[in-house]
Amino acid sequence: MQADQMRQFIYAGIVGDAMGVPVEFNERDTYRITTMTGHGTWDQPRGSWSDDTSMTLALMDNLTHDGTYADLFEKFQAYMMWGAYTPRDETFDIGKTCAHAIRNRFINQLAPTECGDPSEFANGNGALMRLAPLALVLVDESDLKTRLQLTRDYTAMTHRHPRTILGSYLYLEFLHAMLNGQPLRTALVMVPSLVKSALKNEPAVLAEWSHYELYLTPAITELSRSQIRSTGYVVDTFGAALWCCAKAQSVAEAILLAVNLGGDADTVATIAGTWAAARYPAQSLPKEWQAALLNQTRLADYIDPFILKFND
């Protein structure tokens, strides 16, 4: 995969995150975002990125240096405790399920892939939001079983319920298909079929299929905006982001659709941005959006070595 395409893909997620931060948790249609803004929900400066990006940068850093799962937890702890991977050395937003997993690792001494909460009530989007770099690493991996196993492991570090595992499988497999040139409409037919067939040996995960079924069809574009929920529940985030990607004619449009849905706007826009960047690899983000991101040096410190290692 070419370096420019990788960079576009990574920054699409970060821009989506930063555009959603000021309106996170706001009610739909109580605001209108058209460009990068600041303050709002978290009273952070314009261009601030949140835990979505911070934990994504930690994953990139770990992958760049061939780190273990235990090493990645060290990076997650540094983020949570000391503001590593943040724009201003300050952690202002971390999900409770991710925080619980980090405590499980360092207080309860659990194995890395057993730290995630297995409860049905822990099906937030805190794994989905940080996994995009894994799709870049696995873009040339032809073995589906290998891709799914790695996706499961990285997800289970913070979220172990089968519903979230399935969401991660589908998220990364849609990315894999589009990054390899498959049109979204084709992927909406092929990816669900491929994943469902692979789940014959994972009955607990397969049992969660009905939660996602509404979105796993080319007819997703026929769903109305009022049918789309944009909460932090993993199924809602997945569906909202995929709807935005399917409806949009550009990466920028997908991000704006997502940010203006309300609810967990930053994470929905992060996921929608990465999917849209995979769908439209020749497009560029608006330069003013990317230029507005805080601490460009810190972003480059993690993004550039990652691209150098994994590009073609």
What does this structure look like?
The protein has one domain (3-307): ADP-ribosylation/Crystallin J1 (ADP-ribosylglycohydrolase fold, Orthogonal Bundle), CATH 1.10.4080.10. It is 55% helix and 0% strand. It has helices spanning 3-20, 51-64, 69-82, 96-106, 132-137, 144-156, 162-179, 184-198, 203-206, 234-247, 251-259, 265-279, 287-291, 296-310. Helix 1 packs parallel to helix 11, helix 6 (144-156) crosses helix 7 (162-179) and helix 10 crosses helix 11 (251-259). The longest helix has 18 residues, at 3-20. The radius of gyration is 18 Å and the shape is globular.
Provide the gyration radius in Å: 18 Å
Mean pLDDT: 98
Helical stretch count?
A: 14
- Give the tally of β-strands: 0
Report low-confidence residues grouped into runs of 5 or more. Answer: none
Coarse shape: globular
Helix proportion of residues, in percent? 40-55%
- Second-tier CATH architecture: Orthogonal Bundle
Reported by name, the CATH topology is ADP-ribosylglycohydrolase fold
Q: What top-tier CATH class fits best?
A: Mainly Alpha
Head-to-tail CA distance between termini: 5 Å
SS strand fraction: under 5%
How would a textbook summarize the main sheet? Answer: none
Tell me the number of structural domains: 1
Structural class, please?
mainly alpha
Order of helices and strands: HHHHHHHHHHHHHH
CATH superfamily: ADP-ribosylation/Crystallin J1
Organism: Lactiplantibacillus mudanjiangensis
Cofactor: Mg(2+)
Protein name: ADP-ribosylglycohydrolase
Keywords: Hydrolase, Magnesium, Metal-binding
